[in-house]
Write a structure and sequence with these properties.
Structural class: alpha/beta
Number of helices: 17
Oligomer: single chain
Largest sheet: 5 strands, mixed
Number of strands: 13
Distance between the termini: 77 Å
Order of helices and strands: HEHEHEHHEEEEHHEHHHEHEEEHHHHEHH
Strand order of the largest sheet: 2-1-3-12-6
Radius of gyration: 25 Å
Strand content: 5-15%
Length: about 425
């Protein structure tokens, strides 16, 4: 009996050690993913990932506007806010400068399959993989254009301007153009796509503003809102989404907006123009612009993660063609892979696509050196100057000089 008791006394510590090791192994096969609610896969998708890889995924769903602060605070304390995190296109420069993200190895073929990956590449390093595509696309109300006697969709900005004046003069709608001009991020991106599509450039090779392009875009915007009254004055203070939604209410005849409006203009629950609005290529100087501007959202692996290998498997799974398709089914997310977009169009899942697919192949970055680490300070300088211009506080020249001075200071201090 004593021998048996002695045997168990020896065995118990060994069993405790084995179970402890087993527990640690389970912990290493568990990752935390911090994303906003619109990026959450279904339980079925996550269960399939776990079954395939043995990796358990704990979703930490956080409001988009709070994610960057949580990552920063955790990093300051030497910890990872999560193993996998949301990476907005505009955060990439800051995250790269702080060395928060683990580079992701991809083949050139994989990179070429999704043009919207470009904002996430800095100095040749892929820092995040895009899961949600959002690039600028033009939308015109064909019914309004037809009523004004304009039988073809506009191809250049000069044609857009002439058409909008005709529509206004015909009394079809009072404010035929709409764009975000409030002092917020959507105003900055509006100026960027206007300069980029109209002049083909926004920033010089040294990251300063290209004066001809940016001042030209400011003058064009000022002409439309403060001289010809083609834009509703309410856009000076309304949200970006409210400015875009004017196409849905038939108040606007033309916008440049997010890809989500391919579906929004066809949704009877939020649109009064079902069947009347067509997505077309972004206008350019003498015809359609050869470039468009993407504002994608991605996911990346935090360098401080203790489960980087598992986290990297999740990021690549989340970006895969099959999961992009499933995420569209679950969250209506626009795929970042062109082949997946084609599949959804052929299946009839994406409708009223117009020039969507053609435009997706024209995605490029207006930032010659990647998204700068000082983007948040830069965007504040830009949208405040533009807003002051549309409110009549500054001339286009004064608005340009204000943002140009600030950006040159940021570049010099980098």
């Amino acid at each position: 009996m004593r021998k048996i008791i002695s045997f168990f006394l020896v065995l118990l510590p060994m069993m405790f050690f084995i179970f402890s090791c087993s527990g640690n192994e389970k912990s290493e096969n568990s990752i935390t993913v911090m994303v906003p609610d619109w990026a959450v896969p279904s339980d079925e998708m996550l269960n399939a990932f776990t079954a395939d890889t043995g990796i358990t995924v704990n979703m930490n769903v956080i409001a988009w506007e709070n994610i960057r602060d949580k990552i920063s605070i955790a990093a300051a304390g030497g910890t990872a806010a999560a193993d996998v995190v949301e990476v907005d296109w505009s955060w990439v420069g800051e995250f790269n400068s702080a060395d928060w993200l683990e580079p992701i190895e991809l083949s050139q073929e994989e990179i070429d399959a999704m043009p919207s990956i470009k904002p996430f590449i800095i100095e040749g390093n892929v820092l995040a993989l895009p899961y949600a595509n959002d690039f600028r696309l033009a939308y015109y109300n064909k019914k309004h254009f037809d009523a004004a006697g304009i039988k073809e969709a506009p191809k250049s900005w000069d044609e857009v301007y002439a058409a909008l004046k005709t529509i206004k003069d015909s009394g079809i709608t009072k404010y035929p153009f709409s764009m975000p001009l409030n002092a917020d991020e959507s105003c900055t991106t509006s100026l960027i796509w206007m300069a980029y599509s109209k002049y083909g450039v926004v920033f010089n090779e040294d990251s300063t503003l290209n004066k001809d392009a940016v001042l030209g875009a400011l003058q064009f915007i000022n002409q439309m809102i403060n001289v010809d009254n083609l834009i509703d004055p309410a856009c000076k203070t309304s949200t970006g989404m409210d400015a875009y939604r004017r196409i849905n209410s038939a108040e606007a005849s033309f916008i440049v907006g997010p890809t989500s409006f391919v579906s929004r203009v066809q949704d009877p629950n939020e649109s009064q123009v079902v069947g009347e609005v067509v997505p077309i290529l972004l206008p350019g100087a003498n015809g359609p612009s050869p470039k468009t501007f993407a504002l994608p959202e991605g996911v990346g692996v935090i360098k401080l993660s203790k489960n980087k290998e598992s986290a990297m498997k999740f990021v690549k799974w989340f970006n895969s063609a099959e999961i992009q398709k499933q995420l569209n089914y679950v969250q209506n997310t626009m795929p970042t892979r062109i082949a997946v977009m084609e599949d959804l169009i052929n299946e009839g899942k994406l409708k009223n696509t117009g020039a969507l697919l053609e435009e997706s192949a024209l995605i490029d970055s207006p930032f010659p050196n990647g998204i700068p680490s000082y983007y948040s300070e830069m965007t504040t300088a830009i949208f405040n100057a533009v807003n002051e211009m549309v409110l009549g506080v500054k001339t286009p020249e004064e608005a340009f000089n204000t943002m140009d001075t600030k950006i040159k200071q940021l570049v010099a201090a980098k």
